[in-house]
Amino acid sequence: MASLAELRATRLQKLELIKKYGMDPYPSRVPRTFCLADARNNFQEYEKDKKKVSIAGRIMAIRGQGAILFVVLYDGKSRFQAVFKKDILDEKLFSLFIDAVDIGDFISVTGNFFKTERGEESIQVDEWTMASKAILPLPEKWHGIQDTDERYRKRYLDFLMNQELRDLLVKKAKFWDVTREFLKSNGFLEVETPTLEVTTGGAEATPFKTHHNDYDLDVYLRISIGELWQKRLMAAGFPKTFEIGRAYRNEGSSPEHTQEFTNMEFYWSFADYRDGMELVKEMYRKIAKEVFGATKFTTRGHTFDLGEEWINIDYREEIIKQTEIDIDVATDEEIIEKLNVLEVKYEGKNRERLVDTIWKYCRKNISGPAFLINHPLLVAPLAKNIQGKKVTQMFQPILAGSEVGRGYSELNDPIDQNNRFLEQKKLLDTGDTEAMMADFEFVEMLEHGMPPTCGFGFGERFFAFMADKPLRELQTFPLMRPKE
Questions:
Q1: pLDDT per residue as tens digits for the range 9-47
Q2: Does any domain span residue 233?
Q3: Are 179 and 263 members of one domain?
């Protein structure tokens, strides 16, 4: 079997044959009457009228030998067969095709539509020209690229050879289209907010840091989709806003986490978390039906049906139920001891991280659909608390053992918000890189007044759960270490 270097060398020789013939192997334009899907739609008309047409695509297969060749073209949407006959095509042009053309090349062909003896809709080629000569071969047809690292590095080949992956990319685009249409139909205005921030807000995550040369200022890539900015728009009098965009978190990778991803966040004035739960339930069901044509899914060892009743799960009560730890009274040492018994790894020994870690142990046993409610104040620094209680008006959809969204009645008390920022600042000062940065200009905005508001956000993880794929697999071009 020839090596890749030998195959490349052979194709370079074929490239020279094309040039010697006087054909440009990389023209800026080639004859093309319509795309291959339209070729099928217009086939009967053009076959009947004997009209000459031109179509173009990548060669995915060549069969036959001698005086007749059957060539399958693909343009990303459809496939169509081109038939090359020695007694119809110019002899030199026919020989050039045999000597210089390979699977993987892009070509344009011109001729008449006809049906083969087997009834295959085809084009009888009178002329052809090279559209782009491929110097390297495509992966083997039936197996594609097997090495995961190679698949991610050569994503263009992965999409070309893997129809399921192509379909998922199309579904992912529809996922965001349906989300956008749903929110707009409910009166939300789409907005854009900064991706470079002096302080990151809206989530607890380690940010990426960069430098603004003109201002000589260190800035951060955002970790939320404009939470503190969209709340400023609530204060400005916009009743409903949303944004779909990229977020960046400098944290570890897992099937559910990547460092760069797309999220959506909406903000709704004069609404609270209970209003948000009803809207989110409706939105999730609509997305599932329109994108996947179903509400029932099996993924990660769980089965859930978004069309069924959504139960409410109390944060503290669920932890007691599964671990016998009462986070309201248990000491840090008792939580650590329980985590050790459960063989759960944890980072840091501050109260917030410990409580969050023991909850994450519990959530993996919940299939959903459910809303997690009554989060302790400690883990929700931007949410309103429930009057007279030490829990917040926060909610999270739970599916297949994981949170797939987060929302709450937004905190609009400037004094309370200032105190919570100060608590987060203490965590940062003690080395907790995921603690939230204090934004005192945001507190100043709250002092001018912000209406009661419900905010909610979700991202690609929800799509990944319905598709039953790791989040990284659904990234169009995952970040890779450069080859040495």
A1: 999 999 999 999 999 999 999 999 999 999 999 999 999
A2: yes
A3: yes
